[in-house]
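Researcher: For the annotation table, I need structure tokens for Peptidase A1 domain-containing protein. Please keep the output clean. Sequence:
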Amino acid sequence: MQLACFFHSKYKSSQSNSYKANGTFADIQYGTEAISGFFSYDDVKVGDVVVKNQVMIFIEATREPGVTFVAAKFDGILGLGFQEISDGNAVSVWYNMIEQSFVKEPVFSFWLNRKQEKEQGGELFFGGVDLAHFDDVVEQELEVSAFKEYSLSKLSE
């Protein structure tokens, strides 16, 4: 077991009724760190939504070298990227949320709280934009499907 596993919650496929083995090797580079493991299938719960019969493949990490994942304040990584640039051509949970009609619009947005004294650190909003956090919203069409592109007119606290 990797050192990071002692400090975080772990996924246990043996406790899932919807788990299906795949076993194909996976290796993903994150900046200066990387994880490796194997692909699996399962239902995924995101907030109150359970994305059923996942065609999506996810990675069960078995190797997390370095200290980044030991000190991390999270238990896993939820990939929202394009299938075209995913390891193993994996379909993200985001695409399946759209396919299974869990979102009103095929849009997700982030609000990041910059005030450390506040309890809520931020919000990931699926299906649109939570206008309670923004004065002005600028939509940007993506020109290249391999990368996410954004333009900002202003940032506010």
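Researcher: And a one-line annotation?
Model: Residues 31 and 68 are 10 Å apart (CA to CA).
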